[in-house]
Amino acid sequence: MQELDQQKTIDLLNAIMEFELAGVVRYTHYSLMVTGPYRIPIVDFFKAQASESLLHAQQVGEILTGLDGHPSLKISPMEETYKHSVKDILEESLTHEKNALGMYKKLLDSVTDASIYLEEFARTMIGQEEMHNLELKKMLRDFS
Length: 144
Description:
mainly alpha
């Protein structure tokens, strides 16, 4: 086992927490902007994504404080594209989920062989983010 780089891990967790909190805002915004005949199930999907992003931020924050870190009060920067077709929103969501996946992979790389708990947490989150990526790709199929 190698030693955990605590400060690097805290910094990564803070970045992830800021990103997940931005996801809460992003997905809440999307749920409000959806129009059209499939509005209801898509709104429900985005509300669920917002709730899950909040849960992820809370989980990350618990680990962060457990490592004696101080959770950030910031959220990651977000761009407002003013494109609100279902296709545009789903594409933006896919980009967001790919970025989240990359952040959790970076965490995994940092904690591998240093903390089994953090390794397993990162793997679990990677699995969830990969599943979201697949789901969004399937939702986008009819638009291609």
